[in-house]
Specification:
This protein is an alpha+beta fold. 44% of the residues lie in helices and 13% in strands. The protein has eleven helices and ten strands. It has a three-stranded antiparallel beta sheet. It has a three-stranded antiparallel beta sheet with strand order 4-8-7, covered by helices on one side. It is globular.
Amino acid sequence: MTTIETIDKTAITVELPEAFDERWSRLPGIQVEGRRITIDPAEYFFRFESHTWLVADWDLVKAQLLDMDETTESAVEQLALDFIKAHGQSTPDAARVVTTAYEVYAYLFRDEHLAGLGLPQVTAEHLRILREAATLMALNKVELDGRISNVGPCWFFPAATSVVFDLDEETGGLLDEVYHGGWFNEHRRIESIKAHAALGGRLVHGCQSVPDQSGGVVAPYGASMATFRDDLAAFKAGWIKQVYAHRVSPAA
């Protein structure tokens, strides 16, 4: 069992059901060897102040939450919050967080959605990129008071995917909007709210659209969005620049 003491000093290692693109190793502090991912917290994170995360068992989410319907008395957000209160567990095991996140995003960005997305330029390969980046983003964290305690390069989705997958700005921006747009319809947004209960909160964003590139994070219900906005504004420009510095080739 990983402990709070060791997670700050040792590498985070996780083996996932599918292999990730080995080009993730272009970013500092992360090595990908097939299905095995190793992260050195000291190198990978810009800020790493919290060594616990809130998660819920994905199988339980599938069995008890995904098929629940909201009512006039209980909106989908309330269903998710009640589920987290009942089943959420604080864990210092970063590998468990990443494994849970992989299951969440394998579900949210599954290939069967392509036919109904209404964006023919989005491909199955793009969904794989979304799954991988979002899985790693789960290690980011926002506290209830709104302070951003953990920040890694995947906070800045277009920048990170530009480095890893050599995406041009237009494609990176498109995928960023698919990531935080809930597939641009209410059905997908509801699906996202339920699924993110496994990661202890809801997906929130510091930006209104692609041009601002302020990224997103799964934040606990009740977190101060005003503090979140101000904290993000204070550091984002410098850290985005650091991510882009690892580009192997200039974006088209």
